[in-house]
């Protein structure tokens, strides 16, 4: 990952970009409770978990928002199933839903199908609920990234997001974030997620246009910001 940076940011400010994330299939309720406690201690924006952990008690961390994945990680679910999953998550207390598109539809250039998929989930996540669209950017070429981002804009999404973090093609890159930001403009957020392991990575992605970061190693990244020079 390219790490050339042009911004100055402190750990407290960086923490507010972070969806503190635990999506491992072997995660337990105790692991999620520890995630919430750590997220509250670090001052992150939200925690991001699997929907099976809902409803989730955040009474001890009232400033934390709750993000939940949908159609994860493959995106190979019927749109009606994704919409039902998202609707249940909202009913159970989610503030934000991170949905995975059908990556195969994007690779085939069927952006109308991608848009329809997002529209279905958008209907299940009405405002003020936030809908993020995971495009798996490392598995797409530039034209496909642009097409998917345009579909997300047309469908009324709130964010486009680089990656699940589970695809073998890889996670977030500066190039993908720059392209996503250029395509969606200022109206949508851009979430960088997948493979962000250092403070330099995090700052470079924000500099490229990311307005949210999906991190699992949040404590390590924030501690690195204290240590790394130039921030």
Give the proportion of residues in helices: 40-55%
CATH architectural label: Alpha-Beta Barrel
Number of extended strands: 8
Percentage of residues in DSSP E strands = 15-25%
| Cα end-to-end separation | 18 Å
Oligomer: single chain
Named CATH topology: TIM Barrel
- How many distinct helices? 9
CATH class: Alpha Beta
The CATH fourth-level homologous superfamily:
Aldolase class I
Radius of gyration (Å)? 16 Å
State the domain count.
Answer: 1
Q: How would the global form be characterised?
A: globular
> Largest sheet, if any?
8 strands, parallel, barrel
Low-confidence stretches: none
Structural class: alpha/beta
- The arrangement of helices and strands along the chain is HEHEEHEHHEHEHEHEH
How do the strands of the widest beta sheet line up side by side? 1-2-3-4-5-6-7-8
Mean pLDDT: 94
Mind sketching the topology for me?
Layout: H1 11-15, E1 18-22, H2 29-42, E2 46-49, E3 65-70, H3 79-91, E4 96-100, H4 103-107, H5 111-124, E5 130-134, H6 142-155, E6 159-161, H7 174-184, E7 189-193, H8 199-208, E8 212-215, H9 218-227
Parallel strand pairs: 1-2, 1-8, 2-3, 3-4, 4-5, 5-6, 6-7, 7-8
Organism: Cellulomonas humilata
Active site: 98, 161, 191
Pathway: Carbohydrate degradation; 2-deoxy-D-ribose 1-phosphate degradation; D-glyceraldehyde 3-phosphate and acetaldehyde from 2-deoxy-alpha-D-ribose 1-phosphate: step 2/2
Compose a concise summary of this entry.
This protein has 231 residues and is an alpha/beta fold.
Output the keywords.
231 residues, eight-stranded parallel β-barrel, 42% helix, Deoxyribose-phosphate aldolase, 16% strand, alpha/beta, lyase, 8 strands, Aldolase_TIM, schiff base, globular, TIM Barrel
């Amino acid at each position: 990952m390219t790490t050339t940076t042009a911004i100055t940011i402190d750990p407290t400010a960086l923490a507010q970009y972070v969806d503190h994330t635990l999506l491992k299939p072997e995660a337990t309720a105790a692991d999620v409770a520890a995630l919430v406690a750590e997220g509250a201690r670090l001052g992150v924006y939200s925690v991001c978990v699997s929907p099976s952990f809902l409803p989730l008690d955040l009474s001890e961390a009232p400033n934390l928002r709750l993000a939940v994945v949908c159609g994860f990680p493959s995106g190979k679910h019927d749109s009606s199933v994704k919409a039902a999953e998202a609707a249940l998550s909202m009913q159970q207390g989610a503030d934000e839903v991170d949905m995975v598109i059908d990556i195969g539809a994007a690779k085939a250039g069927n952006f109308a199908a991608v848009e329809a998929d997002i529209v279905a989930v958008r209907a299940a996540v009405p405002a003020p609920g936030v809908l993020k669209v995971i495009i798996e950017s490392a598995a797409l070429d530039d034209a496909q990234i642009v097409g998917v981002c345009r579909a997300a804009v047309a469908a009324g999404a709130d964010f486009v997001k680089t990656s699940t973090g589970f695809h073998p093609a890889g996670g977030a890159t500066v190039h993908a974030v720059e392209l996503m930001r250029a395509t969606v403009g200022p109206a949508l957020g851009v979430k960088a997620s997948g493979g962000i392991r250092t403070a330099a990575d995090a700052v470079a992605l924000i500099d490229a246009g990311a307005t949210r970061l999906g991190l699992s190693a949040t404590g390590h990244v924030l501690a690195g910001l204290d240590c790394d020079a130039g921030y």
